[in-house]
Design a protein that fits this description.
The complex is a heterodimer. Chain A contains ten helices and twelve strands. By secondary structure, chain A is an alpha/beta fold. Chain A has one domain: P-loop containing nucleotide triphosphate hydrolases (Rossmann fold, 3-Layer(aba) Sandwich), CATH 3.40.50. In chain A, the strands form two sheets. An eight-stranded mixed β-sheet of chain A has the order 6-7-8-3-9-10-12-11, with helices on both faces. In chain A, strands 2-1-4-5 form a four-stranded antiparallel β-sheet. In chain A, helix 3 packs parallel to helix 5 (157-169). Chain B is of the alpha/beta class. Chain B folds into two domains: 1-96 and 179-266 and 274-281, P-loop containing nucleotide triphosphate hydrolases (Rossmann fold, 3-Layer(aba) Sandwich), CATH 3.40.50; 105-177, no CATH class. Chain B has helices at residues 51-59, 86-92, 104-107, 114-118, 120-126, 130-143, 149-152, 162-174, 192-209, 220-226, 244-249, 254-262, 303-307; strands spanning 7-20, 23-36, 40-44, 67-70, 73-76, 79-80, 97-100, 180-184, 212-217, 229-234, 237-243, 313-314, 320-321. In chain B, strands 7-8-9-3-10-11-13-12 form an eight-stranded mixed β-sheet, sandwiched between helices. In chain B, helix 8 (162-174) runs parallel beside helix 9 (192-209). The two termini of chain B are 24 Å apart. The chains are: A alpha/beta, B alpha/beta. At the A-B interface, helix 6, helix 7, helix 8 and helix 9 of A face helix 9, helix 10, helix 11 and helix 12 of B. Chain B: Residues 9-260 form the ABC transporter domain.
Amino acid sequence: MNDIVISARNLTKHYHLGGGLGGAGQIVRAVDGVSLDIHERETFALVGESGCGKTTLGRIMLRLQEPSGGEINYRGQELTTLDEKGMRALRKKLQVVFQDPYASLNPRMRIEQILAEPLRAHGYGSAAEIRERCAALLEMVGLRRQYLRSYPHQFSGGQRQRIGIARALANNPDFVVCDESVSALDVSIQAQVLNLLRDLQDELKLTYFFITHDLSVVRQFADRVGVMFLGRLVEVGTTEEIFSAPKHPYTMFLISAVPRADPHQRSRERPILKGEIPSPMDMPNGCRFHTRCPFAQDICRTEDPEPQTQGTRTVACHFPLEA
Amino acid sequence: MTEKTDNVLSVRDLRTEFRGDRGHVRVLEDISFDVGRGKIVGLVGESGSGKSMTALSLMGLVPKPRGQVTATRMDLDGTDLTRLSQDGLRQLRGRDISMVFQEPMTSLNPVRKVWEQVGEPLAVHQGMKRRAIRARVLEMFEMVGIPDPKARLDAYPHQLSGGLRQRAMIAMGLICEPKLLIADEPTTALDVTTQAQILRLMLDLRDRVGTSIIMITHDLGIIAEMCDEVNVMYAGQIVEQANVFDLFERPSHPYTRGLLASIPKATEKRLSRRMPSIPGMVPNLAKLPGGCRFRPRCGDAMPICMQKDPGLADLGNGHGARCWLHLPHDAHPQGETA
């Protein structure tokens, strides 16, 4: 578990808004200095609320979008300086499964065409070999090969997500970004797809970067967790560390906000985060969580806390919570 | 008019069907439940189970003539909903029953100021004047915890965050002090910390104002946090109903048990690498299996399950489960309700 598959150093993605005609415009700091290492065959979950930059981080890690700054190292190779040709060769190894199984499959293509496209793009082999590979992919995700001739609308949401997974796995990837890949599914189907992802991980030695807002899924599925808030990773640790003893106040509030499926545990005493997420266009000074943090002191209003690492744990907070 | 009881809403044998070119589809069948005064009653199920359709049927919003709603009883605090005309139903909506939807952005008009929309039920049902409406909306904004409420009155929907928009929708739902508020996935589009705020607000409002609430959700966590009574729906039927403690302590329908097992829990350590799941998928309502609708996915299925649709078995204390496991097999109490 110790070999690093992909490692990000000080990644940033800034968007410039407005401006033009001499106006200054505004800068949205969607990803604002993220460093992290993803280990071989682990499931690393990236959690955070909408607008925190988790999807953008996933995309720039694969260079589906260009980062504004920072470095991404994939198995010893620096991705940010790679030209298009070099990047294309690596694409096989770096794949994505998207959230919406209804929007991510072309409705006018048969399943076979959908699965064959990435194979052809990377020169997989003869037509017969491609055909056989498509059938094998379908079976690998638990669908019958007869479905090769079907269209996406003939499938349920769970089945479509299986097809999306099959497509991502077509060229034997190594590192797969799952962006809210089970969020649109009903719970009974969600569990089926998570089990499939897990089986495929074991079988194909995959490393997952699992982006989600759903903390319950994270606890049951991830090995390590990174918590993102307004473009920053505020805490990283093993799943058990994060859930049993969160150190960043934001992590604690996030976990506490999840409704619990046990009426005996209902409590109105549980701490609830007040207020609203600040706008990423108008970032507060100091720690960006201080406007909502009940533990904030003077230093939090002026000084942005640097991430501190101890063992498996990284926290960016002036006053981390004690266990 | 019937006499007033402890129940704000009482529904018996509600059935909704749609007639189309390809035959007709029964989307709801044998729906019977009560909503006690000041209680929060959950309708929980996966997509297509009929939970939103139940709400639309109650509100008289099922499109006619394709959609047909029948019931032996649909009583809202003494008013027989089955006998109301379209006009009578229009009077009722927003005044006696109101609804909060999942997506506050699509249920608000983007080009009208928020206060005019939130106050509209007052103009429609009570003929109030603008100045009075504005004052009442301000009171409601304060009640639902909208910060800086005065400044928010003249905002347009896009100027509010998702959480504030949902607070405004709740304010609109409660502005005529309805007997029943139906909340259809009110927090599904919101972030988890905002969701916690909105759920807490709804509980507080129930305690302060005594509103009775039907909570429609796919999230058993929300059910456990919020509800007094629960109805679990599957393929257009209520398959289990119970008070919330009985449901979570003694789930009695195999579907409920499967659902409870397959929800990932944020509070529990991971025990195994695989999660329990329910095999198969929700049936197409136009092609329902014979007998019990859950049978094709059920690990406990018996021969009788293929032959006859079970009625709701009475397990005592208002707990019912639509399952042959709890019914005598030779006598088949079809249509029996708990």
